[in-house]
Amino acid sequence: MIDNNDFKIRKIISSLKSSPIRNIANSVIGKKNIIPLYFGETDVATPSFISEAMKTALDEGHTFYSANQGIPDLIETISCYSSDLHKNNISPSRIMVTSAGMNALMIASEALINPNDKVICITPVWPNFMRCIEIMGGKVIEIPLRHHDNDNKWKLNLEEIKKNIKDAKAIYINTPNNPTGWVMSRNEQLEILEICRKEKVWVISDEVYERIIYDKKVAPSFLDISKDDDLLIVVNSFSKSWAMTGWRLGWMIIPEGLINIFEKLNEFNVASPSSPAQHAGLVAIKEGEKFIQNMINDLKLSRNITIKYLNNFSQVIFPYSEAAFYAYFKIKDISDSEKFCFDTLQSTGVGLAPGTSFGNGGESWVRICYAKSPDLLNEAFEKLKPVLS
Ligand SMILES: Cc1ncc(COP(=O)(O)O)c(C=O)c1O
N or C, which end of the chain has less CB nearby within 10 Å? Predict the structure, then answer.
């Protein structure tokens, strides 16, 4: 019997929590007739104008390493796109292209987190950045959103943040939020920025869902209100806005003057993100507004179906979800969300993500991704009816 200790794997790594979502999904690998609502992606393939741009880039010989920072045309394009969206000048010297949002988050952790540094994470949240903190030897301080019964909305616990901010190295905020669909308000952003400036604490703002919002073009961003020397890292991605999850392409916006540091980290992680993918990313941004608009219109239909069903299921408490493409809901009388998701998958064939994936306190909660066709969603909810009514 081989013991992990024989390999001298770092203890922090061998004890890292694996993803409960993956555990559930792995249990049905190879099985037919599963409706997978557990992963965070649409069922729409990347639009052809982006795939064609990749093919052209390959034909034109863009098959070599790029600069660590990314290809200059893409950096310039992201600079124009972000400056325009956020009415703030985001200079190219603050932008680094990464191998998706995940890689940007890991690089942010590598740049900032010393062993035992405390990082506040607003939860529930997609857990990967919490694991990055742990990989670096840092300590996660979870500060949960509060669910208010009176208006059925999620609220930030500012008091608790203020109590903990002095000891923290950074605060990680994902807005629009996966899994709740909560969106941080402008006033909350101003307040967070002010206390972080005062205490010299980094804000790591994960804005990969900034375009997946239903009543405006873009969600409020820290980029709207910050200066270029604030301790702020904004993480973004091609995955969600342009249906490019498998491409592994994203970017990060960092304070002015630090690009040399971050380029080194790109060098020692991946050298540079995929060159042909970067050429396609450029076309995605330049020509992708119509695609985003159409996707949002489709998501509105799926969202309406989801709200209609969930509000009618007697076992479900579903707080209002403003943005992103998830529904995060509580199920009365369950206290082991992982077991519930395993059992539900066996009995209905519908794959849900357990609430325990997203931080402490998720034992009675589950998440679905509703970025699916209306037909598939209707079928899934009909199958869930006996379990949730
Ligand atoms: C909140 C959040 N941040 C970052 C990511 C990473 O996305 P990617 O690595 O595909 O860019 C995800 C993916 O689901 C996410 O939900």
Answer: N
C-alpha distances (whole Å) from 339 to each of 324, 330, 334, 343, 356 are 26, 14, 9, 6, 11
Q: For residues 86 and 66, what is the distance between their CA atoms, to the nearest angstrom? A: 27
Q: How many whole angstroms from 172 Cα to the centroid of ligand 1?
A: 13
- Residue 274: burial class (beta carbons within 10 Å; 0-12, 13-18, 19+): buried
Tokens coding 230: 């604030």
Helix pair 275-287, 289-312: axis angle to 10 deg: 80
111 pLDDT more than 60:
yes
Q: Does ligand 1 come within 6 angstroms of the Cβ of 102?
A: yes
pLDDT digits (tens, 9 = 90+) for 278-293: 999 999 999 999 999 9
207 lines ligand 1 (CB under 6 A): no
- pLDDT classification of 30: cutoffs 50, 70, 90: confident
Dist CA 257 CA 277 (whole Å): 27
Residue 96: beta bridge partners? 252
The helix-helix angle for 48-59 and 275-287 (nearest 10°) equals 140
- Mean pLDDT of all residues belonging to the chain: 96
The alpha carbon of 386 and the centre of ligand 1 are apart by a number of angstroms equal to 32
Residue 18, Cβ density class (10 Å: 0-12 exposed, 13-18 middle, ≥19 buried) = exposed
Mean pLDDT of 131-148: 96
Give me the DSSP letters along 160-198: HHHHHHTTEEEEEEESSPTTT-----HHHHHHHHHHHHH
User: How far is it, in rounded angstroms, from Cα 131 to Cα 106?
Assistant: 9
Nearest CA to ligand 1 atom 15: 126
What is the pLDDT, as a whole number, of residue 4? Answer: 66
With vertex at residue 147, the alpha carbon angle to CA 143 and CA 153, rounded to the nearest 5 degrees, is 120
Q: Which atom of ligand 1 is nearest to the CA of 102?
A: 9
Domains defined along the chain, listed by start: 7-46+290-388 (3.90.1150.10), 48-288 (3.40.640.10)
Tell me which amino acid residue 44 is: V
Report the nearest-CA residue for atom 14 of ligand 1: 40
